[in-house]
Specification:
Layout (H helix, E strand, L loop, with lengths): L12 E6 L2 E7 L6 E5 L4 E3 L1 E2 L4 E7 L6 E6 L3 E3 L15 E2 L23 E4 L1 H4 L5 H5 L2 H7 L3 E4 L3 E2 L12 E5 L6 H13 L3 E6 L11 H4 L4 E2 L9 E2 L5 H18 L3 E4 L13 H13 L5 E4 L21 E3 L1 H12 L13 H10 L6 E3 L4 E3 L11 E3 L4 H5 L13 H13 L3 E5 L18 H15 L8 H6 L6 H6 L6 H4 L1 H16 L1 H4 L3 E8 L2 E7 L3 E8 L4 E3 L16 E5 L19 E3 L3 E8 L8
Parallel strand pairs: 10-11, 10-23, 11-14, 14-17, 17-18, 18-19, 19-22, 22-23
Antiparallel strand pairs: 1-2, 2-6, 3-4, 3-7, 5-6, 7-8, 7-9, 12-13, 15-16, 20-21, 24-25, 25-26, 26-30, 27-29, 28-30
Helix pairs in contact: 6-7, 8-9, 11-16
Length: about 625
């Protein structure tokens, strides 16, 4: 008895079809013969159809049964659509019953793109245990902090004992390194129970170099038509079956694991000349899988192509938000003063920070000297929530000599001020794990691979970092941590006890996020404006019918605002400004805040952020 195509959850793979029965389907046009082989047991030959799909019904199997596909009678390979690889990519696949988990999130309605706070998590280093179960125990603490959405780094299984997850080769199999598939389901279920959404970082631009057996089933999974930064490009336009493999994956994580959305990695290398770009097709499939639940789709796109966040009916891809590297780069220059490599085209000026707040991307088609070409596309009409702002993420922390956090390489006052701008700015903020308590753990590049790949990985990392001239210092080169050494991975694990030891930093981030939640004018702005006050000082003003907020950022020395011919400084109507928050509070490690006097000369302390509030009197609403 075979499951009809309409009853199958996926178009390929092994799915239970009754008592100790399974329906088996695998697309393998490169093979003349394919057998289903129970690990250490019997085999069953599958029937081939005209498009190279092999299928059949097998008996004597159940959830947990380990199996292989024997290709052309001479080699055993795991299932390309394996839902679990208990021994990793080179081992047998395991049958999974995705209906067995007892979900309790039936009342969860999903994630709205507006008003969110993201938290990027690498499960393997977030806790000492490095498991979904251990991470789930921390979700209540994250909810109390003010996090609303976890952005989980990729979990498709990959070779080795540790890695970032971007070299996944089993795209349907949550990595065994963090637990079982049901452990992942339990994490998402627990997150929903306490009001946190979870989105998954997915990699559809390449597959990893170790354990990728897809080409043995069909060479049509890949193409040489396009160049790719990390390996062979995926063949999205030349094969309907290859395209479906990835499109179905986008819906799979939503449907079977209740993820609340996806973050598409490095979309500039998802190359497709089809009438409808595959990213648009994936967006549609993911939303279809969600049913009535609202999901949140985000993307990384290095050339800053804003069509990704335009509607599909307008020729866009239907994604909700884009990572904003422009904001990161200018903020890092403001914090550190360093302008090497891809920071070259930024000065860290307060005008750049204002422009990010008002317009999202800084580069919307101007010449970009670092790349010797124009960068970006128009974004003036996009809402603030179409951009995700951050000062740390996995890439940017690791793209330094020793993976140091920004609080370790900037002054305390500037760090607090820029943190306030990031978390109170109009774009959707993202924190990288440990940032909220000033983690002392670095985040380095680490990847465990077989011996033949280790030296190329080490050399490749050195070559990448060589774009930063300071990292060519022989003393630095000799001290760089090896990405293939297990000690590098272990050093990156967070010490969650630092929440208490670094209580001042933790309190600052918590208070900022609570302020964001308490004031809709910040989290869901209807109008903002900004102005440069002096060379290193700026303001952002938030307008609403009930209140106006003024965020004052001074990255320079003490500033006396006299004269002050800037209308954005004026309170609404007859109201006055009152101080809501100061980065110089002693609760955050500051030195105290001078009294705020707006009658006469304003004085703004150096390297300080202030949030001022004024209620709107009747008849003096939003301008």
């Amino acid at each position: 008895m075979q499951i009809s195509p309409s009853k199958r959850r996926l178009s390929a793979g092994v799915e239970l079809a009754g008592e100790r029965l399974a329906d088996v389907r695998v697309w393998a046009p490169a093979c003349r013969r394919v057998e289903f082989v129970v690990d250490g047991g019997v085999s069953s030959e599958l029937a081939r159809d005209s498009d190279g799909t092999f299928e059949g019904t097998v008996s004597g199997v159940e959830a947990g049964t380990r199996y292989w596909f024997r290709l052309d009678g001479d080699r055993l390979r795991p299932d390309p659509v394996s839902r679990f690889q208990p021994d990793g990519p080179h081992g047998p696949s395991a049958i999974v019953d995705p209906t067995r988990f007892a979900w309790t999130d039936q009342g969860w309605r999903g994630v709205n793109p507006r008003g969110q706070v993201l938290y990027e998590m690498h499960v393997g280093t977030f806790t000492r245990e490095g498991t979904w179960a251990a991470a789930a125990e921390q979700l209540a603490e994250l909810a109390d902090l003010g996090i609303t959405v976890i952005e989980m780094m990729p979990v498709g299984d990959f070779a080795g004992r540790f890695g970032w997850g971007y070299d996944g080769v089993n795209l349907y199999a949550p990595t065994r390194l963090y637990g079982t598939p049901d452990d992942l389901r339990a994490f998402v279920n627990r997150a929903h129970a306490i009001g946190i959404g979870v989105i998954l970082d997915v990699v559809y631009n390449h597959l990893g170099p170790d354990g990728n057996y897809l080409e043995e089933f069909s060479p049509d999974y890949f193409t040489d038509k396009y160049k790719n930064d990390w390996g062979r490009a995926i063949n999205f336009e030349g094969s309907a079956q290859a395209r479906a493999y990835f499109v179905e994956n986008a819906g799979y994580w939503i449907g079977e694991f209740h993820f609340d959305g996806l973050r598409f990695d490095a979309t500039q290398d998802v190359k497709d000349g089809s009438r409808q770009h595959v990213l648009a097709t994936m967006s549609l499939r993911a939303r279809e899988a969600a049913g009535a639940k609202q999901i949140y789709l985000t993307a990384e796109n290095e050339p800053q192509e804003t069509r990704l966040v335009r509607s599909i009916t307008e020729g866009g891809y239907g994604i909700d938000a884009l990572w904003n590297d422009d904001y990161h780069h200018t903020a890092v220059v403001a914090l550190t003063g360093r302008r090497e490599a891809y920071y070259t085209d930024y000065t860290g000026s307060v005008q750049e920070l204002i422009s990010c707040a008002k317009y999202g991307y800084l580069y919307q088609g101007q010449w970009y000297a670092w790349q010797k070409q124009r960068r970006g596309t128009a974004a003036f009409d996009l809402p603030a929530q179409a951009f995700i702002s951050y000062i740390e993420n996995h890439d940017q922390v690791a793209n330094s000599a020793f993976g140091r956090r920004l609080h370790q390489v900037s002054s305390p006052g500037r760090y607090r001020a820029i943190s306030a701008l990031t978390l109170l700015g109009p774009a959707t903020p993202l924190l990288f794990q440990g940032q909220e308590f000033g983690s002392s753990a670095p985040f380095l590049f680490f990847a465990d691979h077989r011996e033949q790949l280790r030296e190329p990985i080490r050399k490749g990392r050195l070559e990448f970092l060589s774009q930063f001239v300071s990292l060519l210092d022989p003393a630095v080169v000799s001290a760089l941590p090896s990405p293939v050494d297990s000690s590098t991975f272990e050093r990156c694990k967070l010490d969650l006890a630092e929440r208490e030891r670094h209580a001042e930093t933790y309190a600052m981030h918590r208070d900022l996020l609570h302020l964001r939640q308490a004031h809709q004018a910040i989290s869901q702005p209807s109008r903002i404006d900004g102005a440069v006050l002096r060379t290193n000082a700026m303001i952002l003003r938030y307008f609403s019918d009930t209140e106006h907020l003024l965020l004052v950022i001074n990255l320079g020395c003490d500033l006396d605002l006299s004269p002050a011919p800037e209308p954005l400084l004026a309170p609404p109507g007859p109201g006055e400004w009152s101080l809501l928050w100061s980065s110089e509070s002693i609760a955050y490690g500051g030195q105290g805040t001078a009294p705020l006097t707006t009658d006469g000369e304003w004085t703004i302390q150096g390297e300080t952020a202030l949030l001022l509030h004024s209620a709107v009197a009747e008849g003096h609403g939003t301008a």
